[in-house]
Amino acid sequence: MPVYNLYMGCSVPANYPNYEAAMMKVAEAYNIQLEYMDGVACCGSPNLRAIDYDGWLAVNARTLAIAEKNGHDIVTPCNGCFGSLKDVYYHLKHDAKYREKINAILKKEGLEFKGTIIPRHFVEALYTDIGIEEIKKKITKPLDGVGIAIHYGCHLLRPEDVTEFKPEYLDELIEVTGASVVEYPLWKQCCGATVLPVDENLGIRLARDKLKSMKESGAKYVTVVCPACGNQLDLQQLGLKESYKEEYNLPVLLYPQILGLALGMDEAEVGLGMNRVPADSILEHLTG
Q1: How far apart are CA 2 and CA 67, in angstroms?
Q2: To the nearest 5 percent, what fractions of the chain are helix, strand and coil?
Q3: pLDDT at residue 47, rounded to an integer
Q4: Residues 6+ away with beta carbon under 8 Å from 229
Q5: Domain tally for the chain?
Q6: Residue 81 forms part of a structural domain
Q7: Would 264 be classed as within a structural domain?
Q8: Do 273 and 146 share a domain, yes or no?
Q9: Adjacent-strand bridge partners of 6
Q10: pLDDT at position 45, please?
Q11: What pLDDT digit, counting tens, does each position of 64-111 carry?
């Protein structure tokens, strides 16, 4: 049984209990043990990094050091948390002087960053540690080939040498559920979530362009693995309908919701009713 430190971050427990519930049900189905971490702080993505770089390094190094004491890799369902933890892990592994500086701060709590555990995204752990073949064995209600566009999210893919996450991981995780992946031109573009507080018009435009690219490419649904991205692409559809008179009707599902349904879970178990753009139509595409 794989065992991980579970770093939830702030956004998922505050805004997306359906993400947490679906992830925990999927983990249970594959005998993955997720142990909630105690005493950890917000990762500070992206605001703390912009105003206090050393503080951002220290707070994430502290989380990594706590995980090292627990002896298991970290998994998180949030792209922002994953990006912060992986970036700090990479930085401190490759910069001895900074590592020494940050460890001097951590020493006050009896902690030390050694780089002995790796921060992972939950879907990455699914792909690499469980594997596509094992995932497939437990699917009882595959989808009927319905087209799903993937929004990977900036912090999952970039910088590539730091995150070490390949888009193909998520492609295969979608395909194993029986769905088909819809390719669209703006697949690398930001959804605008982190831009929104600084430039609302630009943030809305980025989401609009992204949704339009997906829709025009034939997608019936969207999947995300990040609460901020999910909120942006889901919520902005309501605003675009009001301000632009444009209806995209693209339900935005978190990946564990899709996999959970394919595993035979019901809509309540994966929190389908919490999606702002109604997503219950995906039930019509389940077979078996």
Answers
A1: 15
A2: 55, 10, 35
A3: 83
A4: 79, 151, 153, 191, 193
A5: 2
A6: yes
A7: yes
A8: yes
A9: 36, 75
A10: 86
A11: 999 999 999 999 999 999 999 999 999 999 999 999 999 999 999 999
Same domain, 146 and 262: yes
Question: Is the Cβ–Cβ distance between 255 and 284 less than 8 Å?
Answer: no
Q: CB–CB of 201/236 below 8 Å?
A: no
Return the closest-CA partner of residue 14 out of 58, 74, 80, 104: 80
Residues 191 and 237 grouped into a single domain: yes
Segment 28-42, tens digit of pLDDT: 999 999 999 999 999
Q: Decide: 57 and 49 in contact? Cβ < 8 Å.
A: no
Classify residue 273 as exposed, middle or buried by CB count within 10 Å of its CB (0-12, 13-18, 19+): exposed
Pick the closest to residue 55 from 106, 109, 115, 11 (CA basis).
106
162/233 same-domain check: yes
* pLDDT at 245 (0 to 100): 86
Average pLDDT rounded to a whole number, residues 255-282: 96
224's tokens: 């995300």
DSSP code of 5? Answer: E
Same-domain pairing of 102 and 192: no
**Domain check: are 144 and 172 in the same one?**
yes
Q: Give residue 203's domain range.
A: 139-285
Mind listing the pLDDT tens digit for each residue in 164-217? 999 999 999 999 999 999 999 999 999 999 899 899 999 999 999 999 999 999
**Helix/strand/coil (H, E, C) string of 183-224?**
CCCCCCCCCCCCCCCCCHHHHHHHHHHHHHHHHHCCCCEEEE
- Say yes or no: 29 and 147 in one domain: no
Distance CA 284, CA 268 (A): 15
Determine the residue type at 20.
E
Q: Strands across the sheet with 147-150, in order?
A: 180-181, 147-150, 221-224, 252-254
